[in-house]
Write a structure and sequence with these properties.
The complex is a heterodimer.
Chain A lengths: L2 H13 L25 E6 L2 E6 H5 L15 E2 L4 E4 L3 H13 L10 H10 L9 H25 L12 H10 L5 H24 L2 E2 L9 E2 H4 L1 H25 L3 H6 L1 H18 L4 H12 L13 H12 L1 H25 L11 H12 L12 H19 L2 H48 L8 H8 L3 H17 L6 H9 L16 H8 L1 H10 L7 H14 L1 H10 L2 H14 L1
Parallel strand pairs in A: 1-4
Antiparallel strand pairs in A: 1-2, 3-4, 5-6
Helix pairs in contact in A: 5-17, 6-9, 7-9, 9-11, 13-17, 14-15, 14-16, 21-22, 21-23, 23-24
Chain B lengths: L1 H29 L8 H5 L12 H7 L4 H14 L4 E3 H9 L8 H11 L6 E3 H13 L2 H12 L6 E3 H15 L11 H13 L6 E3 H10 L1 H6 L8
Antiparallel strand pairs in B: 1-2, 3-4
Helix pairs in contact in B: 5-6, 6-8, 6-9, 8-11, 9-10
Chain lengths: 584, 233
């Protein structure tokens, strides 16, 4: 219930006195109000800005942070106020919600920041007032779309293939993303080339060539070099058919693939050829055959796989379907109106072109789109007046839906550009994240190296002190993890070395060890291992090999390695133990 | 011949155009057709109603509330109605929020009339606080008086059966239809009969203020229940 309702409740209860004389039964006892009704002013300090409000105001919404006892967690006894380390600008809106019962969304704030604040204060966003709800919803949807795009871009097909994918999956990937493998790229360019060749052949076919010997008439090249063109056509169609069949084979969902626009275009591009093969050389049917040849021009749409811009255009037109529909509808209405008017205006003229209303359609269309061929011209004055009105209104009607389409196209185009930019930025971002992670690991390794596990020697005291308390605690945490798993952290270099020289593992009880895991870890890093080697007297075996052996023993016989190692070189053992004990 | 043809045709066209435009203008003048949809602007009432209540001391003297109580009451009132008055629609809305299951608008209408003692169509803070003062801090006599005033819809000093039926129907309306036992058509009428049997001593078909007060004071249940709402504020 809204805040206001709580204010009016005492009034409603008082008005119940009006029912008393009419009551059929005895009235129940009223609830006893134990708590003190004294209202007090609360101080709320949000990042230094002090807000004051009545306690009752905050109590209006008992299921939020400020209205419930949860705010006691933030009470500061020294200053007798509730302290929140949050954004004071946003808090203003939150507090206004308590005061007025309406939550407003500040337009200049980031939607995510706002949502986070609401979540912190325990307020459900659904109660945003009507005045701001639309804006809030729009921004939220925009943000979610952007996030979805980001995750899509992350999972984009640029990611490496899962290791065990069938040849069919690989083939599909090659088709969808040509730049993943060289073969796919080659195939991509070859098909592109053949599409171009096919389209050009179609065009050149109709150009008049020099006539055959002994004939005066100009022949179109298609009829002169029939065989050549036929061979070229066959080659192109073979390639297209092959491509289509391969795609069909590789598609994860064949039904869906067959229904997609691109596959329909593919089919339409190659069908005329096969139908032409099958059909007999009959004069009657050749008319229909000629029509079919027209469909060969659809091959040019196959280019849309190769061009991003074409796809965007197609997508724009699809998304502006309603605006285009409106444009078409209004144009049709206007055409019919003006055609009728022109027809009746010109009816009286002798030998007029406006023979019927459908005949006037042509004039109207040509005039409204400001083409003005001049093959149909009004002669009467009324016709001329209405003709001019027609051309003026044509300009207006067509100009109206165009900006909507343009803005849609611009939005989609920018989205696309943003996706590309995202991908580029993604690489940089991932590189940065990896660097940061490596930095932390390196810091930890350095810490260990610098004897972080020992007592603070005077040598190392300085460089250790420079690390913050946070770092110390973090390193301690990592160290605990090492102890838990009985493994140690290492850096990439040594790890790769270890992997390569795995085969060299031999079991000697005389492993350099230090037998504790510390030894293993330190010996993993050659630099540190050397240091240990310097410190320890009896290391004979080379560090890296020893480390591998250690690793082997660790991995294979965790338990047995233990006592085995503890047998060795007691001095080393005691030394390392001492180190450990000093640290702990 | 050509020139005459042009003349006649031109004149014809011109004539048609003039006639069409003139008729459109005439219709627009007559208000039968309108070219623009600007009727919305006319409906925008600039409500500049601002009401400031009497001074705190005066209200303190006129009502039985303490200063602090009046302060709390006014703060709440002003928060909800910044303009200082409540009009009937707002009042109905507010009251209906307490009875979501039924339709409280009729009863709210009667209540509004009971609170709006000067009958100016809106309840100011004074009306509000005076009414509350009677209901919560008044004597039994005053409360009964107020109730009688509520039931007497046309404020003529008599409660007729029709008025009572309206009131009782409005109360039952607030219950809504999901009740147990199910509300029957004749329940309000029966209720009115019971009331009149109890209250109308001289069987003249109306209940006067004296009959009402007399009867209520003799009814123990009513007297006891009058104390119920003392501690609301």
């Amino acid at each position: 219930m809204a805040a206001g309702v709580a204010t009016w409740l005492p009034f409603a209860r008082a008005a119940a006195v009006g029912w008393l004389p009419l009551a059929k039964k005895i009235m129940p006892k009223p609830p006893v109000d134990k708590k003190s009704r004294n209202d007090e002013i609360l101080f709320v300090n949000v990042s230094g800005i002090r807000f004051q409000t009545w306690k009752n105001t905050l109590d209006r919404y008992p299921d939020t942070l400020l209205g419930s006892s949860e705010k006691e967690f933030f009470y500061n006894e020294d200053t007798q106020e509730y302290f929140f380390d949050r954004d004071p600008e946003m808090f203003r809106h939150i507090l206004n919600f308590y005061r007025t019962g309406k939550l407003h969304y500040p337009r200049q704030e980031c939607i995510q920041a706002f949502d986070e604040e609401l979540a912190f204060y325990g307020i459900v966003p659904d109660i945003i007032g009507d005045c701001c709800m639309e804006e809030y919803r729009d921004r939220k949807k925009e943000n979610q779309e952007r996030l979805a795009e980001d995750t899509e871009a992350e999972n984009a097909t640029d990611t490496p293939l899962p290791p065990h994918s069938t040849s069919r999956e690989r083939l599909w990937r090659a088709f969808e993303n040509p730049h993943t493998s060289t073969m796919a790229l080659v195939f991509y360019y070859v098909t592109g080339f053949f599409i171009a060749v096919s389209v050009i052949a179609n065009v050149v076919e109709t150009v008049p060539c020099r006539p055959l010997k002994g004939s005066k008439k100009d022949l179109p090249c298609g009829e002169k070099y029939t065989l050549a063109f036929f061979c070229m056509d066959t080659a192109c169609v073979l390639i297209f058919t092959f491509e289509y069949l391969m795609r069909l084979f590789a598609a994860p969902s064949r039904c869906k693939f067959m229904r997609s626009v691109m596959s329909v275009i593919d089919v339409v591009a190659i069908m005329p050829y096969y139908i032409g093969l099958v059909m007999p050389e009959n004069e009657d049917v050749s008319g229909a055959f000629v029509t079919l040849r027209v469909f060969r021009v659809f091959r040019i749409f196959k280019f849309s796989r190769h061009s991003q811009g074409l796809r965007i255009l197609g997508y724009t037109l699809k998304s502006c379907a309603s605006e285009l529909g409106f444009l078409l509808f209004s144009l049709t209405m206007a055409i019919i109106i003006f055609a009728t008017v022109m027809f009746y205006a010109e009816k009286g003229t002798k030998g007029t072109n406006f023979t019927s209303i459908p005949a006037s359609f042509w004039y109207t269309i040509v005039t409204m789109t400001t083409l003005g061929y001049g093959d149909m011209v009004p002669n009467t004055i009324a016709g001329k007046i209405f003709g001019s009105i027609c051309s003026l209104s044509g300009v207006l009607v067509i100009a109206l839906p165009v900006p909507v389409i343009v803005s849609n196209f611009s939005r989609i185009y920018h989205q696309n550009q943003r996706a590309d930019k995202m991908r580029a930025q993604q690489k940089v971002r991932l590189a940065r994240i990896r660097l940061a992670k490596k930095g932390t690991t390196n810091a930890f390794l350095h810490y260990k190296e610098d004897g972080g596990f020992q007592d603070r020697d005077s040598d190392n005291a300085l460089c250790l002190k420079n690390r913050s308390a946070f770092e110390h605690q973090h390193h301690h945490l990592l160290h605990c993890l090492e102890k838990t798993t009985n493994h140690e952290f290492t850096d990439e270099l040594t790890f790769s070395e270890m992997c390569m020289t795995e085969s060299v593992g031999y079991r000697t009880s005389r492993s350099t060890s230090i037998s504790s895991q510390q030894g293993v870890s330190t010996s993993c890093c050659p630099r540190r291992g050397k240091r240990r080697a310097i410190r320890l007297a009896n290391s004979t075996v080379s560090v890296s090999r020893g480390s591998i052996q250690e690793l082997d023993t660790l991995q294979v016989h965790k338990t047995s390695a233990g006592p085995q190692r503890y047998d060795i070189t007691q001095t080393l053992m005691i030394y390392s133990h001492k180190e450990k004990e000093k640290y702990y | 011949a050509v020139s005459t043809m042009w003349e006649t045709e031109g004149l014809q066209t011109f004539g048609i155009v003039v006639v069409v435009c003139a008729s459109l203008k005439l219709l627009h003048l007559l208000g039968l057709i309108s070219f623009s949809e600007d009727s919305v602007e006319d409906e925008l009432e600039l409500s500049a109603v601002r009401h400031r209540p009497e001074a705190l001391e005066q209200l303190e003297a006129q009502t039985r509330f303490s200063r602090k109580e009046l302060q709390i009451l006014y703060r709440g009132f002003k928060n909800e109605c910044p303009s200082g008055v409540v009009n009937e629609d707002t009042f109905k809305e507010i009251y209906s929020q307490f009875f979501p299951q039924g339709d409280a608008s009729t009863y709210a209408h009667f209540l509004f009339n009971a609170f709006d003692t000067d009958h100016n169509g809106s309840i100011s803070f004074e009306d509000f606080v005076m009414g509350l003062s009677i209901l919560l801090r008044g004597s039994v006599q005053e409360k009964l008086n107020w109730a009688f005033n509520l039931y007497d819809i046309n404020k003529d000093g008599y409660i007729t059966k029709e008025e009572m039926l309206d009131i009782i129907k409005s109360i039952y309306d607030m219950m809504g239809k999901c009740t147990y036992p199910i509300l029957k058509e004749e329940t309000p009428r029966q209720h009115v009969e019971i009331f009149f049997q109890k209250m109308d001593k001289n069987r003249d078909g109306v209940v006067t203020i004296d009959e009402f007060i007399d009867c209520c004071q003799n009814d123990e249940n009513i007297m006891r229940s009058m104390q119920l709402f003392e501690n609301v504020i």
